[in-house]
Amino acid sequence: MRITIVGTGYVGLVAAVCLAKQGHQVTAVDREPVIRGLRAGVLGIWEPGLEELFADGRASGNLRWETDVVRASLDAEALMLAVGTPTRPDGHTDLSQLHEVLAKFMHHGDCPPLIIVKSTVPVGTCDELEVSLRETGLRTEIVSNPEFLRQGSAIQDFMYPDRIVVGCQSPYAEAELRHLYARIDAPVQVCDRRSAELIKYAANTFLATKISFANMMSDLCEGYGADIRQVMAGVGSDRRIGPHFLQAGVGYGGSCFSKDLQSLLTSGKLVGLSLPMLEATAHINEQRIPRFIAKLISCWGNLQGKRLAVLGISFKPNTNDVRDAPFLTLLKQCQLHGIAVQAYDPVVQHVPYDGVHVADSAYTASVGADAIMILTEWPQFVSLDWARMAQGMRQPIMLDGRNLLPNKAVERFLEHDAAVYIPVGRSVVSCWGD
Ligand SMILES: NC(=O)C1=CN([C@@H]2O[C@H](COP(=O)(O)OP(=O)(O)OC[C@H]3O[C@@H](n4cnc5c(N)ncnc54)[C@H](O)[C@@H]3O)[C@@H](O)[C@H]2O)C=CC1
Ligand SMILES: O=C(O)[C@H]1O[C@H](OP(=O)(O)OP(=O)(O)OC[C@H]2O[C@@H](n3ccc(=O)[nH]c3=O)[C@H](O)[C@@H]2O)[C@H](O)[C@@H](O)[C@@H]1O
């Protein structure tokens, strides 16, 4: 299929390289500086397997780059929109990136026969976009085809999804989408467009709710001396519940969970519904970092002049994305309290904010620190020499915000005099054994 993909952020770029790999003729469109970077081989995104597929797409000739969306789509059979849909300060979804693209086709007076909306858009958006196109005489059909990939495993998720959701109006659109994804072995759920749009929000907010539930239970575990890992293992082994997304910690981050939750709350308001369960999910998440700051305060007493070593800047492992990362919330809170932050991340080497020093190794970050906090569960943190980490610190206090460290690593840390290990939803352990 000849397809033009607009937006080469996370979703657009992954879709472009994967569809090119599957033999489609893909033209990817973005703004001038982004395309200049891509032409020079600069991806801007760190994602396992992406570089290889990118090189593959260039070598095969199946992947081309353009800045002019109309020119890029002249002989395209479909246009896929993967532009950003951020939340505005008033809680409404900002659809200006989508409108900007469609305005170009309306002005041109022609458009590919099919527009596939890959971006996450509020329920009813595809209907509204189609009405606008019709008003200018364009007969293009719009399909809602939400994306469920996760950063850090984006290629794998795109190539081997649990399902493909196609919200469409006609057998023609369904057949085109089945053809586009013919080489992906996954069930295709065909439904109306509004349901497809809502499936995406319901899935993301349900996952966020599972995480907030686990975090709420972890606070209860701390209050009663239970172990959240055991509790969630017992809960998740019920097949009706499942073991995933029950990992307690510093809360969810990333570009989508908070944004999509806000957007769905606004969609609810527009039809007179308050969606209280989602209000609670957001509230619990917002309280995570303040709860960790409170733990630091109870360890340190006086905060002035304290230094915190933070391990993990990206919002999850295997990505360099810091959008809405717990790290950014922590940094703001530390600045308010006058706590100096020295951070380390295996792939994020620069943070565009004041008040943080990004170190070149975990060991350098820990030197002179009054506590360490693990924010991202990068596997390489497990194999650090934790006795060495403790030795370099001013006070050997460790807050494991992801329950990452196995007993052996904790024991090494606790070899140091006065060392304290503070996990999530479990009892605190010190070198004195309590
Ligand atoms: N990041 C993720 O893991 C996932 C994101 N989504 C959804 O996919 C959509 C895209 O997300 P991301 O890739 O993270 O967004 P992003 O913000 O990283 O990328 C959007 C890209 O679109 C480009 N763009 C904007 N307006 C344009 C225009 N008029 N012409 C050409 N290019 C234009 C921007 O320059 C940017 O490169 C959002 O709706 C998001 O909610 C869905 C699933 C996963
Ligand atoms: O719409 C999107 O953008 C995507 O949002 C999430 O994907 P992503 O944000 O990339 O990553 P997740 O693995 O979902 O993690 C999100 C956050 O939740 C946290 N998390 C995850 C799982 C868990 O048990 N506990 C927990 O705190 C992670 O550390 C991370 O900060 C969804 O999982 C994807 O299906 C969806 O396509």
Automatic annotation (TrEMBL):
List the Gene Ontology MF annotations in alphabetical order. NAD binding; UDP-glucose 6-dehydrogenase activity
Spell out the reaction equation it catalyses: UDP-alpha-D-glucose + 2 NAD(+) + H2O = UDP-alpha-D-glucuronate + 2 NADH + 3 H(+)
Positions bound to NAD(+): 30, 85, 120, 259, 323
Question: Superkingdom of the source?
Answer: Bacteria
Under which EC number(s) is this enzyme classified?
A: 1.1.1.22
Pathway given in the UniProt record: Nucleotide-sugar biosynthesis; UDP-alpha-D-glucuronate biosynthesis; UDP-alpha-D-glucuronate from UDP-alpha-D-glucose: step 1/1
Entry-linked PANTHER family: UDP-GLUCOSE 6-DEHYDROGENASE TUAD (PTHR43750:SF3)
Active-site feature positions: 256 (nucleophile)
Q: Tell me the GO BP annotations in alphabetical order.
A: polysaccharide biosynthetic process
* Name of the protein described by the UniProt record: UDP-glucose 6-dehydrogenase
Which residue intervals define the domain UDP-glucose/GDP-mannose dehydrogenase C-terminal in the entry? 309-407
Pfam families xref list: UDPG_MGDP_dh (PF00984), UDPG_MGDP_dh_C (PF03720), UDPG_MGDP_dh_N (PF03721)
Keywords annotated in UniProt: NAD, Oxidoreductase
- Mind telling me which Gene3D superfamilies this protein's record contains? Cytochrome c1, transmembrane anchor, C-terminal, NAD(P)-binding Rossmann-like Domain
